[in-house]
């Protein structure tokens, strides 16, 4: 089954404790992206990657890191999480960034930082 | 900053009625447009894409695009309670990424 898999689905952590949210897709998609979704603010892009070893900042990159060492994986790293990073996070992938190719989203990771 | 504007709603329609969801966007470069449906706490799900002016129909859904007016809409015919969700409009920006509106919450009353 074609899918984007995120782990974990739920995570509660403490301020300052480094964490990684994993994202993997099995569709050989070149484009991958991370979003956070907060009430009233909609989906906001954190980072995106056009291909292996190519990453770029989205609209809200502060406090986050990413890497794209393999085509299928695009982990999101929070080096020192803070309570304002409590949010619902989505990973998405797409075959291309043109034409009728939309995004396929993962199931989401609900992160709480206390 | 490219912007996508949607009425936040909630838009309430009776079962069997037509629901009309509207979206305006500021980036004239946008050529492809997407509608996503998102149930509460779930991930967005692609339901329609459109890139030519005019109408595109898929089952009970019709997307309408007017690039000159920078306007795209989604009509849902014979609305069902299961259509109750938030609908996200997403034009493709000049960098190739999708720019999401904040969504319109639709409530279909039985």
**How much beta of chain A, percentage-wise?**
over 45%
The H/E string of chain B reads EEEEEEEEEE
Instruction: Tell me the span between the first and last alpha carbons of chain A.
Output: 36 Å
Low-pLDDT segments of chain B: none
Query: Structural class of the helices, strands and pairings of chain A?
Result: mainly beta
Using DSSP, what is the number of strands of chain B?
Answer: 10
Mean pLDDT of chain B: 93
Q: What's the gyration radius of chain A in Å?
A: 13 Å
**Most residues in contact: chain pair:** A-B, 24 and 22 residues
DSSP helical segment count of chain B: 0
Description of the structure:
The complex is a heterodimer of chains A (114) and B (110). Chain A has 114 residues and is mainly beta. Chain A has strands at residues 4-7, 10-13, 19-25, 31-38, 42-51, 54-57, 65-66, 76-78, 87-94, 104-105, 109-113. In chain A, strands 2, 4, 5, 6, 9, 10 and 11 form a seven-stranded mixed beta sheet that branches. In chain A, strands 1-3-8-7 form a four-stranded antiparallel beta sheet, with no helix packed on it. Chain A is globular and about 40 Å long. The model of chain B has no long low-confidence stretch (mean pLDDT 93). Chains A and B meet through strand 4, strand 5 and strand 10 of A and strand 5 of B.
Characteristics:
heterodimer, A: 114 residues, mainly beta, 7-stranded mixed beta sheet, B: 110 residues, 5-stranded antiparallel beta sheet, 5-stranded mixed beta sheet, globular
């Amino acid at each position: 089954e074609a899918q984007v898999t995120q782990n974990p689905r739920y995570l509660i952590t403490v301020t300052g404790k480094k964490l990684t949210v994993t994202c993997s897709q099995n569709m050989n998609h070149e484009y991958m992206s991370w979003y956070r979704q907060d009430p009233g603010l909609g989906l906001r892009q954190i980072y995106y990657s056009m291909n292996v070893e190519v990453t770029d900042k989205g609209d809200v990159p502060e406090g986050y890191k990413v890497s794209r060492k393999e085509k299928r994986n695009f982990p999101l790293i929070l080096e020192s999480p803070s309570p304002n990073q409590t949010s619902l996070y989505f990973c998405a992938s797409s075959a291309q960034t043109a034409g009728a190719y939309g995004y396929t989203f993962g199931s989401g990771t609900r992160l709480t930082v206390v | 900053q490219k912007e996508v504007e949607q009425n936040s709603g909630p838009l309430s329609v009776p079962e069997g009625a037509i629901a009309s969801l509207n979206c305006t966007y500021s980036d004239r470069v946008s050529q492809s447009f997407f509608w996503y449906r998102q149930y509460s706490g779930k991930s967005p799900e692609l339901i329609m894409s459109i890139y030519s002016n005019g109408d595109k129909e898929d089952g009970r859904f019709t997307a309408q695009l007017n690039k000159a007016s920078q306007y795209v809409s989604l009509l849902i015919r014979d609305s069902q309670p299961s259509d109750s969700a938030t609908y996200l409009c997403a034009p493709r920006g000049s960098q190739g990424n999708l720019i999401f509106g904040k969504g319109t919450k639709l409530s279909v009353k039985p």
